[in-house]
Amino acid sequence: MISSLILSLKVLAVDVPLLLVIGTSLGWLLARRNFRGKEALNLLIFLPVVLPPSVLGLYLLMLFGRLPFMRELGLLFSFPAAAIAPLFPSLPIMVQSARSGFASVDVGLEEAARTLGDGELAVFWRVSFPIAKRFLMAGLALASARALGDFGVTLMIAGNIPGRTQTLPLYIYSRVEALDLAGANMAAILLTGVGVMSLLLVRRMEGAHGGAS
Description:
The chain is mainly alpha-helical. 82% of the residues lie in helices and 0% in strands.
């Protein structure tokens, strides 16, 4: 279980910064900008929410396996695949939280900052981001827990290779197949604990936000 735990932590080390950067950017874009193709982008981002993991994994398997430049990268059944796979089902959580956070920012405050001479980047860091921060951190907590617990998409494009792509959810699957329920339960308890802590963190942020308002 230790090697699977270490691998899962490595996956999180890759995914958490990507979730924060990509999710925040897309959330801000959807909340603050109108452009051609916005609805199509919105549909594409949130499609993984309604697709079964096996279907999403199949599409990614076909994408990575059939496109020549993707095939040459050798992503399939490797650690990069294990790191990329959880992004797709967890990113919508981060984007939705970010979009809600930036939508809650008073446009008048941003306009006031601009009239004082702040550029768009300064407005973002000094006004928009601090106000939306609680939403972003809550979304990141939930999205990270979702990424840590991904099973179906990871299995489809990364496989279940011990020491290479076998994350904790895949370890549980392997232990159940081997009828080692004690080993499966240990990993399951660990993942459950992470999920509970994520929910408690979100509730705490919501409570602090409600108290501040």
